[in-house]
């Protein structure tokens, strides 16, 4: 799956005048995720702390993480693309050095999602950072 870069996400979201349009863009981003098969949606891949079900799987190629994700909520799939635009195809060092808080602030994301969605986003980011930390 070819995802936009975090820089492209910032540029694309800045193009829209209001958050209604940005939400639609985020939902459309989520439609790019191929999803996981039912067999891959196992309890060990379920990210704890998310309001919606979110499954996260990964493997590494040449020292870079490749993530496969899925959610049962369209908006969450879009939010997963935003997160993965910063982390997918990156080394553990790159993942751990990326300032996700500054990225979210730059796109003004957390002010425009519910607190429970924000907690879920932080859980996903935390899980990915944990995986990267363990791989070092």
TrEMBL record:
InterPro entries: Fe-S_metab-assoc_dom
Entries under Pfam families matching the protein: SufE
Start and end residues of each Fe-S metabolism associated domain: 10-130
PANTHER family assigned to the protein according to its UniProt record, in alphabetical order: SUFE-LIKE PROTEIN 2, CHLOROPLASTIC, SULFUR ACCEPTOR PROTEIN CSDE
Family of this protein: Belongs to the SufE family.
Name of the protein: SufE family protein
Lineage: Bacteria, Pseudomonadati, Pseudomonadota, Gammaproteobacteria, Alteromonadales
């Amino acid at each position: 799956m070819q995802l936009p870069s975090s820089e492209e996400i910032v540029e694309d979201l800045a193009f829209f005048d209001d958050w209604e349009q940005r939400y639609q863009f985020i939902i459309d981003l989520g439609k790019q995720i191929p999803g996981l098969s039912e067999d891959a949606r196992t309890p060990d891949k379920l990210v704890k702390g998310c309001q919606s079900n979110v499954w996260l799987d990964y493997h590494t190629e040449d020292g870079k993480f490749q993530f496969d994700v899925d959610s049962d909520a369209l908006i969450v799939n879009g939010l997963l693309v935003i997160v993965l635009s910063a982390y997918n195809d990156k080394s553990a060092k790159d993942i751990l050095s990326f300032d996700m808080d500054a990225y979210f602030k730059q796109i003004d994301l957390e002010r425009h999602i519910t607190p429970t969605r924000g907690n879920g986003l932080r859980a996903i980011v935390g899980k990915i950072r944990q995986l990267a930390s363990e791989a070092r």
